[in-house]
């Protein structure tokens, strides 16, 4: 979420005065703004599932209020499920994290270049403490799926000491962080333990079929496995209906109380597990920025080969994973754990880099310039748009008069996505005609630099 800072169009640091202040428009890296806008809009493609309905597993349309894989829309929903996982799931969030990591290098380089000295660390710390606070406000008062808290926490604890680390070392740390992320998911969901228990239970079942005697320990294995299966069983339709009605009918402060309970309680431990999920792409962003990858400095062939290689890895993993998880419309949690969760970090990072390369190709070719300008405007006001998106979706599904939560088909949720995108794209462009920053960007920067920043566009020397 860090905004891009001082650099020329060739990626070199621009000459700057000794005062410490936010970047002017002339100093911004448009390619990073375009990427940030693209990622922010793309994140909603996946988050809309949580905004608009209950679900048994994250971003997998089983256990929803309307059965996605039955009825006349089953094939349409399945196709959308594939598209989401091929190009959006994890990849947009990872792209956002990557740009956040790049922002760490941009911010600190610029502050040090302008003679901030020891103040650079203070600026960096204040910036990310404010981000943590905004994340808590967002997660408790608006929507429980916040990611800002995790960004701020990772930045405060881990990223600053690595700001001058070489790309080669950073890439090695990316590999380590990615493995840690996979391990954290495995540990949190007990995947290896459940897979082992499944095999043991299957062996006992085979013995039973062959009318062989079953020991007490084998009976305990069967009982333990049945307990795991029951814990992951989809809710009965009546229970799903009750969950939907509760979400739609509860008052705002009831929702706040529930989110506060969940955010500070059980889900806070999950944020610890999520730290490697943010760390790996953030470190990758720090490396790729230094290599010139994110500023469109590399050759067109480099981006083409990067896209081809990334998709060659991620696409087969997703196709096989979704096929095994779907399993002809019958949800079984272990299929998801084994075929989507375990290879998740590999497919999301390679797919994200491939998607980034595609955007870089379009930028280098000068394609869709008007769309690029619209995306850049969203990217420059990303913090405001992130929270605005949550407010709009909560209003549409829960707070407002329509209360559409749990009433739309899986594919129909995309209509809301398109409507929110239209608001993001239109308001961002209009706002930046008159103002330097989005409203929340202004608050963030003013708190970071300890002084109210000039807001009107004409006050920006760039």
Automatic annotation (TrEMBL):
UniProt cross-references to InterPro entries, sorted A to Z: Bact_Transport_Assoc, DUF418
Domain of life: Bacteria
Domain DUF418 intervals: 289-450
Pfam families referenced in this protein's UniProt entry, alphabetically: DUF418
Name of the protein in question: DUF418 domain-containing protein
Source organism per UniProt: Luteibacter rhizovicinus DSM 16549
